[in-house]
Amino acid sequence: MFDLHQSLKGFSGWEDTPAPEDEAAPSPFIDEPWRKIKGWGESTRKELKSEIQDLKPERFDVPTFNVILTGQIAAGKSSFYNSINSIFSNRVLPTKATSGEMGQSFTKQFKMYPFTHNANIRIGDTMGLDVNSSEVDIRNIFKILDGHVPNLHEFQSDEEFLPDNPDYILHPSLAERAHCVALVINANKLPIMQHCQVRKLKNLAVGIINRGIPIIVVLTHLDEFHPEVSEDIRKTYRSGLLKDLVVKLRPMLHGLPENLIFPVINYHKEVELDVGMDVLLLYALRSMIYAAECYLENLTAS
Ligand SMILES: Nc1nc2c(ncn2[C@@H]2O[C@H](COP(=O)(O)OP(=O)(O)O)[C@@H](O)[C@H]2O)c(=O)[nH]1
Ligand SMILES: [Mg+2]
């Protein structure tokens, strides 16, 4: 049987994280939370929502904060977008961004969604990477981040989007570029990720870091990764398993600080909103806009 605890020790695809054989399995819960948040109740949800709704890029020469979702295929990018829309609509919405199995055929399309609950935010849903992705796919993601790709563009498989394409945006303005990248990663798949996939994610991260664009990691499928957490979501930051996962993820993302990594459970089977799920999702979204704000601030200052 697959043993997650055992697998976390070795991290099959993670060349730089060997672990001694006799190390005890990490405790599922620790006494002190490894992250402190304002709370898990209605007042926190309300506060985060109103804060996000008020954020504007008014000090900068751009109409919107542009957040681009990328990462693994089927990690939950479209579901994340749907989940945050559900929270702001006060009910679990039917799928808007293409999600699930059906979404596979559309994963090569780039789509920029307006966020109707705050018109100052746009969220781009992109194809992600999997074992079959090539270097060209990674370069095409960089083209999106750099603003060369128009909304609704369909990438042809294995074809690099180049300036000779009539749709190519040659000189994108800051308003067309990414101001933050959300790397969406399935927490449950991470410990069993293959070398080649880890390498691709690392390459993606290097390219984003080299561009100076901030990265926020969204760790999805927390419910599957640590099922006891989904029974009581307020235990999220007391999960030793999750803490261990975050510690092991950081080197892969070139030492990305822990406070830029956000575990979530996307709406996938629920029919009612859950305040704890919303708090996790809203923290992730708020951090993306904060990061975008910081990025624009730095560009304006320099
Ligand atoms: N259990 C669970 N399933 C999820 C979660 N997020 C997404 N899913 C499911 O994972 C599958 C892929 O999600 P999708 O949003 O289409 O992934 P994308 O390819 O990254 O856009 C769908 O069946 C979702 O319902 C999550 O946090 N927990
Ligand atoms: Mg999708």
From TrEMBL:
Q: Which domain of life is it from?
A: Eukaryota
Question: What segment(s) does the record annotate as region Disordered?
Answer: 1-28
Signal peptide feature range: none
Q: What is this protein called?
A: Interferon-induced protein 44-like
Q: Which organism is it from?
A: Exaiptasia diaphana
- Source lineage: Eukaryota, Metazoa, Cnidaria, Anthozoa, Hexacorallia
